[in-house]
Amino acid sequence: MLQMKLCGDLILREKCDPVDSITPDVLHNMDEMVKMMREQNGVGLAAPQVGITKRFLVMMNPDDETVFKMINPKIVKRSSETAVIEEGCLSVLGPDNLPVYANVTRPAVVTIEWTGVDGKQYSAEMSGIAARVAQHETDHLDGILFIDYLSPAKREMVMRKVRRRK
């Protein structure tokens, strides 16, 4: 059974290794991650968040509820136009056991490439919330959390809430 890793767990800061082959284990873990994401009302979940240091993630486009299961995803293009959107994370929880949110500036549009569970290569240009989720989740694969984009003062405000949870 997969278990959610929370802010402070060092696995969230590790750079993940590529998936060499699509095994039944990888497929099973991705299915479980989709269930966890839905149960916790999330829109994305990356492997390190459940203790696996491999490059795969699941995400949902909240606009149409399409679920993507991405193996070895890579953002290959980022727009120069940016957007400020509130972000939270299922691994960054406050004292109420709910995600802590903060405004983060990121590229407004991204192009992402990945291998699907069928072994085929895919590419998509994403904008809006989908672009946000894709960037947030691929960051997890490189050991980056959304709080890393905040000013020191804003990061401290978020971390104060996280520490109150413990």
Can you characterise this structure?
The protein is α+β, with helices and mostly antiparallel strands and 166 residues long. Helix content is 26%, strand content 29%. A five-stranded antiparallel sheet has the order 1-2-3-6-7. The protein has a two-stranded antiparallel sheet with strand order 4-5. Strand 6 and strand 7 (121-127) form a beta hairpin. It is globular, with a radius of gyration of 15 Å.
Give a concise summary.
With 166 residues, the protein is an alpha+beta fold. Helix content is 26%, strand content 29%. Strands 1-2-3-6-7 form a 5-stranded antiparallel beta sheet. Strands 4-5 form a two-stranded antiparallel sheet.
Write the layout of secondary structure elements.
Blueprint: H1 24-39, E1 44-46, E2 56-61, E3 66-78, E4 82-87, E5 102-107, E6 109-115, E7 121-127, H2 128-140, H3 152-165
Antiparallel strand pairs: 1-2, 2-3, 3-6, 4-5, 6-7
